[in-house]
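Hi R.,

Here's the input for the guanosine-5'-monophosphate complex you asked about:
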Amino acid sequence: MSADCLFCKIANGDIPAKLVHEDDMAVAFEDIKPVAPVHILVIPRKHIPTVDDIEPEDSQAVGHLFQVAKKIACERGLAENGYRLVFNCKADAGQLVYHIHLHLLGGRKFNWPPG
Ligand code: 5GP
Ligand code: ZN
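And here is the predicted structure with guanosine-5'-monophosphate in place:
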């Protein structure tokens, strides 16, 4: 828990969000400014600022984010046509919130390479 972290506050319930999943390791909620019909952020409860800060002991918690994203994608009917999962790491990738979050994006086609 980092006292000044927006996503720690959402995970703790101190700031409201539209939660779609919660367990002992992870929380998932609707992005406040969705860029696709489905845009959900999946975060670990542990405060990890960037992908660059992931330690070997975080492997289970980070791997779990994919399990949660996959489950939600399936629930939202995205499994057949597919979806995109994104971690932005630091400034060049456009990371705005420094608590790692897996973007689950779906419901439309996405370009590659990204802009
Ligand atoms: P990043 O650019 O760091 O990878 O993505 C941060 C994401 O967090 C953005 O898509 C942004 O819309 C979302 N976001 C920022 N502040 C809030 C908030 O207070 N609540 C929710 N639900 N999403 C937020
Ligand atoms: Zn945090």
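One thing worth noting: The chain has one domain: 6-106.

Cheers,
M.
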